[in-house]
Design brief:
- 38% of the residues lie in helices and 15% in strands.
- A seven-stranded parallel β-sheet has the order 3-2-1-4-5-6-7, with helices on both faces.
- It is of the alpha/beta class and 238 residues long.
Length: 238
């Protein structure tokens, strides 16, 4: 049975979000791919899937933008069965040590990377509740968001954002734990070849998106297993 899937941060052809879109379309699902600005890659993909790919402009850093997008999506989507919160941004100083880091650039990054997914969940909650089964929310996190596994002295903003997103996920898991209509997890997806700088990464995004697509379905109804998991569904330390 086809499902309605909303994925944020889908505009870059080599990145994970775009390849999630490809994988779900190939399964025959209806996909709402959200982007901050028009994407030629998505336009090409839409030409191949004119009936099942819906491209929606949405800036998750803006409550007004997210709410407006939710209203538009509700006009053509009867429900949502899955949300993948994939969009993220970082500070221009993310690779710098504290001494060189302009701390005033952290808040905009947190606004998108941490508060943004919460805006999406809140605005689209009515459509999630209309799912024919259990709707799943997946927050794409990172090993950088693990306090227990932290080894870096840089990526201050990114690590803070993902750790906070993990806490938000746990809080919402508590909220949804007795609700048969909703479930939520947060995922460390692993290192992928999403740009030239990641050429040595072990995973190719298109293949890896399918690995995670299959894993998500094993977690859809799992209310008692780990909440912060790897791409393989294994527990990852908070």
């Amino acid at each position: 049975m086809s499902q309605y899937v909303l994925i944020t941060g889908t505009g870059r052809e080599m990145a994970l979000g775009f390849n999630f879109v490809r994988r779900y379309l190939e399964q025959g699902d209806h996909v709402i791919a959200t982007v901050r600005r028009p994407s030629e890659a998505l336009e090409r993909l839409q030409a191949l899937y004119p009936d099942t790919l819906h491209v929606q402009l949405m800036d998750i850093g803006s409550t007004e933008s997210v709410n407006a997008a939710a209203e538009k999506v509700a006009e053509y989507a009867p429900c949502l069965d899955l949300i993948i919160n994939n969009a993220v941004t970082t500070s221009p100083d993310t690779n710098k040590e504290l001494e060189e880091f302009d701390l005033d650039t952290i808040m905009p990054a947190l606004n998108v990377a941490t508060v943004g997914p919460l805006r999406v969940i809140k605005a689209f909650l009515p459509l999630l509740r209309k799912s024919r089964g259990t709707a799943l929310i997946v927050n794409i996190s990172s090993e950088a968001g693990s306090i227990g596994a932290c080894y870096r002295s840089t990526y201050i903003d990114y690590g803070m954002a993902k750790a906070a997103l993990n806490m938000a996920t746990k809080t919402l898991h508590n909220k949804f734990k007795d609700d048969p209509k909703l479930n939520i997890i947060t995922v460390h997806p692993g290192w992928m070849r999403t740009n030239e700088g990641n050429a040595k990464a072990p995973f190719e995004p298109y293949d890896h998106a399918e690995t995670m697509r299959l894993m998500f379905e094993t977690k859809r109804h799992d209310k008692t297993g780990p909440i912060f998991v790897t791409y393989a569904g294994e527990e990852y330390p908070w």
